[in-house]
Amino acid sequence: MNDLVGVCFALFTLWVVARIIGGASREGRSLGRNAEQMQQMVGVVKSMFPHVPEASIRYDLMVSGSAEVTCDKILQQGYLPPPPDGFPGADEAPRPAPQESASPPSTESETPASAPPANLITRYHLEERLADSSSQKDASAMPTAWSDNANDRQKSLEERKAQMILQARRRMAQRQRQQGSAPVSPTSSL
């Protein structure tokens, strides 16, 4: 009977040792897999938000465990807080600068060098087409087939955009004429 207890104890001890050793190797494999998954999640988030430092992304992913939660946090806040100082890679994550000292207050006399055009007609250089009455093409005269050539598609889309802007201008001028307002000049804003 004593031999049976000893054999059972020995088998149990071997089983426990095998589980510990086998569990450690499985854990090592899962850590490698988790590191790969973490790197993939960091890559996904970094591709969506290239302005966010990788160390901040990695830290937030370690805390949250989800790329979706990290993306939501970036979308809500616009940034991720930097990782704590003891976190590996924390020194490469720049601290967000206060927004108050970002730029000195500008005076009213300063004007930006490249001010946007006042209206769509000048922005898309359609002044001569607005004055030309023969440019009133019907929208159905536009080709409806989608071209295989990228340049043709680009030209077609630009032409459609120009036609839409000119149509809107004509409708606005017609409404103003009906209301008895002054005629619309090409330089008035849309």
Automatic annotation (TrEMBL):
Basic and acidic residues bias (residue ranges): 150-162
Record CDD domains: CUE_Cue1p_like
Chain segments carrying region Disordered: 77-190
Signal peptide residue numbers: 1-18
Keyword Signal: yes
Listed GO MF terms: ubiquitin binding
Comp. bias regions, Polar residues: 180-190
InterPro entries attached to this UniProt entry: CUE
Keywords: Signal
Residue stretches of biased makeup (Low complexity): 98-118
SMART domains: CUE (SM00546)
A Pfam family reported for this protein in Swiss-Prot or TrEMBL: CUE
Keyword presence, Protein biosynthesis: no
Residue ranges constituting the CUE domain according to the UniProt record: 37-79
Protein name per the record: CUE domain-containing protein
Organism: Malassezia equina
